[in-house]
Design a protein that fits this description.
Blueprint: H1 11-18, H2 22-33, H3 37-55, H4 61-67, H5 73-84, H6 88-93
Helix pairs in contact: 3-5
Length: 96
């Protein structure tokens, strides 16, 4: 999943791919990582976006949103602020 963060896998896809019953997979994942697959990937994407915002000033926030799997820059900005505590632009400006 982290190898291709642009792709949004469904739980059913993951269950089938790894040949693990859906409920067992969700329980096991939460036991290992302490959170759901969805929450883990959202946090992972936002941390990757933060790196891009700090290091890649030529790309717009919308372009970075697309690189981490968000087609809608507004939804990306809301998710980013929820995880990182600042909007993507505020975050980027804090590293100038």
């Amino acid at each position: 999943m982290t190898g291709n963060i642009q792709k949004h896998y469904t739980l059913e896809e993951l269950s089938a791919r790894f040949e693990i019953p859906l409920t067992s997979m969700k329980t096991c994942f939460k036991g290992v990582y302490g959170t759901s697959v969805f929450a883990y990937m959202r946090t992972y994407r936002m941390h990757q976006a933060a790196v891009l915002l700090r290091t890649n000033r030529r790309e717009s926030v919308a372009e970075i949103a697309g690189r981490v799997g968000y087609d809608n820059p507004g939804k990306f900005a809301m998710a980013f602020k929820k995880i990182m505590g600042k909007s993507p632009l505020e975050y980027r400006k804090s590293f100038v």
